[in-house]
Amino acid sequence: MKPKVIYLIRHGESEGNVNRSLYKNIPDFKLHLTDKGKRQAAKMAREIAREVPRTEPIRIYCSPYYRTRETADALRKVFKKVTYREDPRIREQEWGNFMVDKITKKVDAERNGFGTFLYRIPGGESGADTYDRVSGFLDTVYRSFENSDHEETVCVVSHGFCLRILLMRWFHWTIEEFEKIKNFRNCEIVKLVLNDKNRFGLVTPLRKRPYDRAIQR
């Protein structure tokens, strides 16, 4: 049984969002939410609870990073019946183990000029690599729909880039279409709703870049 609604949620503001130099000494997955990020997560959970009764069973898929876990915790505090699954396939795009400022700035410039989907980060991943593992994750999600008692509400708590890749895979976007989409804001909710054709439609407007990066280069 397919769920009626799927919420895609980027984590709240993290320590790395505020102070990028932390990546030099702290592994990306160990960065926590800031106090602001925790407030964002609590607000996000309340917004979803306005649409979904708190007593209704929900399913949460979560990246194993600390900041996504802490964001998902806000949902687990609000909803009474939660099936919770951590899945490494929806982790952040890998940028290598530790980042050095001068290298990161060089990579940022090269990546923006080359295109974020196909550019391979030295010691890390390309967007295409992320696409492959997200495809495996979606295969698992699709198979879960075969269960007759599947929850009607699903939340996927992940990272901005990974969630855009997920949408690209789901809706079969081209690389150029993917590059036009801006990253999600912290704790932004993107909503997919099952329609009368038994297909999921994207009902949340996505922010777009003012130009097509692929054409500009």
Describe this structure in words.
Strand 2, helix 3 and strand 3 form a beta-alpha-beta unit. This protein has a single domain (5-216), classed as Rossmann fold (3-Layer(aba) Sandwich). The protein has helices at 15-18, 35-49, 66-78, 101-114, 127-144, 160-171, 175-180, 213-216, and strands at 5-10, 58-62, 82-86, 153-158, 189-194, 200-202. Helix 2 (35-49) crosses helix 3 and helix 5 (127-144) packs across helix 6 (160-171). The longest helix is centred in the middle third of the chain and has 18 residues, at 127-144. By secondary structure, it is α/β, with parallel strands linked by helices. It is globular. The chain contains eight helices and six strands. It has a six-stranded mixed beta sheet. The N and C termini lie far apart (45 Å). Mean pLDDT is 93; it is low at 213-217.
Number of beta-strand segments: 6
Structural class: alpha/beta
Shape: globular
What's the story with the biggest beta sheet?
6 strands, mixed
> What's the average pLDDT?
93
